[in-house]
């Protein structure tokens, strides 16, 4: 049996908002004229999640991931390991902390400003647009960004604090405030060793020494770490990644503070921040270097050599301006 829509809902995202959405969906879908047999909703399970995603992909035209960027990344990683990447459209209802992908797909603001009913009504009628997916070490899907350095250290420590119960609140605002505290605690961190090899948009190979630099950010979309934009011209469907080398703390702070300011950000990113369009890359770091992928801590899971290459182009639901 096939469904027009399958909703995979992370029950703990957004402080448990996933459970609220699960309960409201029958009323919302009925109000839009969808019969019960045309759609399905279920909670994701940590154990056996890959099989659950595969089953959903094989029984629907459109899979709606309800959760944070990590939930979408799990869906996309499973898609790349199957033959569904070009057959099933993907939608997102954003419940995470950063929600960078939802921002560029024009989903985040309508959800925050006008609520679930408004977003679902528009999302289920939204057009699908091409979206590049990249593969990290031949296994993990990169949809948003990858980085190693101070921002990955902050993400790692934040996740550790959340796992240990040091973060008492589950609200988005409380999470962001804790991120700020982690920044001040980790402000002296830098890459103690590292190098980058990449093939640029003209097909030429280059290398770069990263020792002592604050971070290296690799972006597929024009949004990073909850809506900042350190990328000069990131495009989610051009077959290139945007690589930003951040050598020092002033450059890191300016990239976050003014990256979204139209003229000032353009001048800074065009002339002062090293930004390169690449086809593929290899990054060498310490095996215990702090790394993050689409906002998820990947420290200790990728080894000392990280390769990123184009994997596929999928269809993502995006609201029109």
Notes on the structure:
It is built from 9 helices and 15 strands. The chain is an alpha+beta fold and 321 residues long. It has 2 domains: 3-133, 3-Layer(aba) Sandwich (Rossmann fold), CATH 3.40.50; 145-310, Sandwich (Tumour Suppressor Smad4), CATH 2.60.200. Strands 5, 6, 7, 8, 9, 10, 11, 12, 13, 14 and 15 form an 11-stranded antiparallel beta sheet that branches. The protein has a 4-stranded parallel beta sheet with strand order 2-1-3-4, with helices on both faces. Strand 13 (291-293) and strand 14 (296-297) form a beta hairpin. It starts with a strand and ends with a strand.
CATH architecture of the largest domain: Sandwich
Straight-line distance between termini = 35 Å
Rg over CA atoms: 19 Å
Portion in strands: 25-35%
Tell me, briefly, the overall form.
globular
For this entry, give a set of tags:
Rossmann fold; Tumour Suppressor Smad4; 2 domains; alpha+beta; 321 residues
Quick structural summary:
The protein is of the alpha+beta class and about 325 residues long. The chain has nine helices and 15 strands.
